[in-house]
Write a structure and sequence with these properties.
13 strands, alpha/beta, two-stranded antiparallel sheet, 341 residues, globular, 16% strand, 10 helices
Length: 341
Amino acid sequence: MAEQCQCSAAFDCTSQPAACCPDWMAGLPDALPLSHISIPGTHDSLSLFGGRRLRCQSWDLEAQLAAGVRFLDVRCRLVRGELHVYHLCTFQRASLRGVLRRTLRFLRAHPGEAVLMRIKEELPLFSRPGFAAWLRRCLLEEGQDRVWCREEVPTLGQVRGKIVVLEALAREVLGIPYEQLSISDAWNVLSLERKWARAQRHLERAAAGDHATMHLTFCSGNGLFTCPEDVARFVNPRCYQHLQRRRGQPMCWGVVILDFPGAGLLRLIMESNAPWASRHGKAAPGAPLRHPCGRGGGGRRRRSSAHHPRRCPSGRMLRPAPCLCRRTSAAAKQKRVPSSG
């Protein structure tokens, strides 16, 4: 009974996910822009330490990726010439270099997938000079030409096997500008009901809105009288029920970002892409629609390189160093909730 309280379809704070979906993107068409895909993600993805007030996840990075998470939220501070992963003032026993290496190792084993990675300076009020330069250097040295560092949102075919960087630097371009996305991040939770209501409205806006824009909905939060785990216990089941009611319809929920996600909730987000992919008509005629976790009409199938060749990007992939330039794009016109940490 105690284990059941720790793990449900929507909420899971155990050490290992209840399902494994490492190749769910492989069956989606190459021509699909990332902004047209429902993508499960985690908030403060490496926040495993710091007690109930700070801990946001219970699965390590490899477990999250294997469970189907394709958006990572990585918070860094520059400490002694290295970008270390932090949640507020708590070191999370990881470095950005290590996170990049581990993510690229997963992508080498699963080349049909792509991982969005938001890289943010933690506690920017105490910013260290040179953060952008060190981030650029880290992406260049660890990225191995497998990091998307252009401003435009790519198609899935352009970034299979790659990390897609989202960043919020003021002057330099090292990825998709975070401030141009449609974001709901009501992180300071005073009312659990209001927190879910705002997340629900943004999910509906993503489903009904302009799919040329990437939508990010943070279902996570913290507050003076609550903590990330309590917020997740309340919000995640409501998110599960909301998505379950629309199951089987061609929906694009955007990027749905969670603390302590359950395997069932992740699967609902992934499954919403099956009819969406079918509408784009890129699958072979008569081919059975593949289940996001690898199950299709003919049972479990392995992705074959003969049927899903790894394509070169239609546009030239730029290394992080050449991409470094002065920010020229205008801020997003869409109304958004101010982002936290």
